[in-house]
Design goal:
Low-confidence stretches: 1-8, 132-141, 247-253, 388-392
CATH architecture of the largest domain: 3-Layer(aba) Sandwich
CATH class of the largest domain: Alpha Beta
Helix content: 25-40%
Number of helices: 12
Radius of gyration: 28 Å
CATH topology of the largest domain: Aminopeptidase
Strand order of the largest sheet: 25-24-26-29-27-28
Structural class: alpha+beta
CATH superfamily of the largest domain: Zn-dependent exopeptidases
Largest sheet: 6 strands, mixed
Length: 493
């Protein structure tokens, strides 16, 4: 039986073991539903024509054609005879989906489905068992997705979908303990793309083909916090990260270890690694150290109960991996890496500060910035230690930070607001990129690009004692607000 239970903007489709929410459009009391989404649930094969403004549904003995902004439903038999049904109102095209008036389309749906349909206004549609031979899709022999692997981590679960072609696009949504992922223009083997039984935060995975697309339903526990779907560079595979909560009941019994008592300040570059050179001759390593030392003094004066740890407090070269090691060995609760931006063009109009989180870069600019900052490894004795952090392995590394991402994001938000109000530079926003220096620090972490040394205004501001002091004061204000938020959260757990 098929049952619709209406909500404010969606209805729940309950068809046997399949439960699915789809949107509805209510116009003056008439409910419209997306016909292709209904067909997906029922397993009816169809084609999208004229862009997406026409949908043709295929049955063994006839086809049904529905056109947007049109009051006619057309049934065409295999013998090429046509029957045209005129509706009292036209269909609609909403978000590239053709919506039909449910009440006025019942008799036509009943005819083509071969089942009894009863509409109980305003929210329930019941359909008796439809004829299976009318709706079974063609058997797919050449599956694109044939393998699913699950890698359980302490802070979540990593799912890998093996594909023999690039997945063009996908969408995901989460509701009531179910993460639904629709993969466009691919097919999967439902017998292989599934799992049951508890695997960390995952309870069960189901999959099915829907027309030209495929869908995964991942049932998760209450420990679920977030997820990401990521394409893998140089591969057709898809990675799905399922993150769980950083705090568990067991961990909360020892809340002392979560006290906000150590801040690690990382002045980027140093020693033989000067970083970027400004158009005014200022060196990035000097600006970074100047801001770091000023921030440390402000913290020691205004937050006396917090220990300040520097990865470097003078003009010394410190390898990237050692910076994270210093932070971890000192029990850091927040890691702040300070840098300056630059561009190949000198001078440049690009200006302003940016705040970065550790995730694989999503934009060309973010990837370029990460590449430049990661370039310090050329000065290290063993640069090969970072090779394993490329491509999909970086997803595993960034996943290890996902437990802290909520806090990193919150601190980034405070930073962005305080910088916007406290320094003489514009905001370029909060972004994400793959910075090696953030990899090793097992704590909430951010990287700040304080401005562009290749911009005349920014370079002068960053070189000045006043500019560096204003930046340090804004970071201090951000830390104070973040600690208040952090302690309230810990106490509530």
């Amino acid at each position: 039986m098929l049952c619709f239970a209406q909500s404010a903007v969606t209805i729940e489709v309950d068809y046997g073991k399949v439960k699915k929410n789809i949107p509805v459009y209510n116009r003056q009391g008439t409910i419209y539903i997306p016909i292709s989404q209904l067909a997906d649930i029922l397993g009816i094969n169809y084609n999208l024509l004229q862009g997406q403004e026409m949908v043709r549904f295929h049955f063994p003995k006839s086809d049904l054609t529905v056109t947007s902004k049109n009051p006619y439903l057309v049934i065409e038999s295999k013998e090429k005879t046509k029957e045209v049904i005129q509706l009292p109102t036209s269909t609609y095209l909403i978000n590239s989906q053709v919506y039909i008036p449910l009440k006025y389309s019942l008799r036509t749906l009943e005819k083509i489905l071969g089942g009894k349909i009863e509409f109980q206004e305003p929210s329930v549609l019941k359909i008796s068992e439809i004829k299976k031979d009318q709706t079974v899709l063609p058997v797919i022999k050449n599956f694109n997705l044939t393998m699913l692997t699950i890698d359980q981590k302490a802070n979540g679960t990593l799912i890998r979908l093996k594909s023999n072609k690039k997945i063009p696009s996908y969408t995901s949504s989460f509701k009531e303990g179910v993460l639904s992922i629709t993969l466009r223009n691919v097919s999967l083997d439902p017998d292989k793309i599934k799992t049951s039984g508890g695997k960390g935060v995952i309870r069960e995975i189901k999959s099915r083909n829907m027309g030209k697309d495929a869908e995964l339903e991942i049932m998760v526990t209450k420990e679920y916090t977030a997820s990401e779907v990521l394409n893998i560079d140089h591969s057709n595979d898809l990675m799905i990260t399922i993150h769980n909560k950083i705090f568990s009941n067991k961990e909360n019994k020892n809340k002392d270890k979560w006290d906000f008592d150590v801040i690690v300040i990382d002045a980027g570059h140093g020693g033989k690694d000067v970083g970027a050179i400004g158009i005014n001759g200022v060196r990035e390593k000097d600006v970074n150290l100047g801001v770091a030392l000023k921030l440390g003094k402000l913290l020691e004066k205004n937050m006396k109960d917090v220990k300040v740890v520097y990865t470097r407090s003078n003009d010394t070269f410190i390898e990237l991996y050692k910076r994270g090691k210093i932070a971890n060995e000192n029990g850091g609760k927040l890691f702040i890496s300070i840098h300056c931006n630059s561009t190949p063009q000198r001078p440049t109009d690009a200006s302003g500060f940016e705040v970065y989180l550790l995730r694989p870069g999503r934009t060309k600019e973010a990837i370029q910035i990460a590449s430049r900052e990661n370039g310090v490894i050329q000065y290290e004795d063993n640069p090969k230690r970072y090779q394993r952090l490329t491509d999909e392995n970086f997803i595993l590394v960034s996943m290890a930070h996902s437990s802290y991402m909520k806090y990193s994001e919150k601190f980034s938000d405070f930073l962005n607001k305080e910088f916007s109000n406290g320094i003489d530079e514009s905001s370029r926003g909060i972004k994400q990129a793959g910075f090696y220096v953030l990899v090793g620090a097992s704590m909430p972490s951010v990287l700040i690009e304080t401005g562009f040394l290749t911009n005349p205004h920014d370079a002068a501001y960053l070189k000045s004692d006043n500019g560096q002091s204003k930046i340090a004061e804004s970071v201090l204000a951000s830390i104070q607000k973040y600690r208040e938020y952090y302690q309230q959260f810990i106490q509530s757990e």
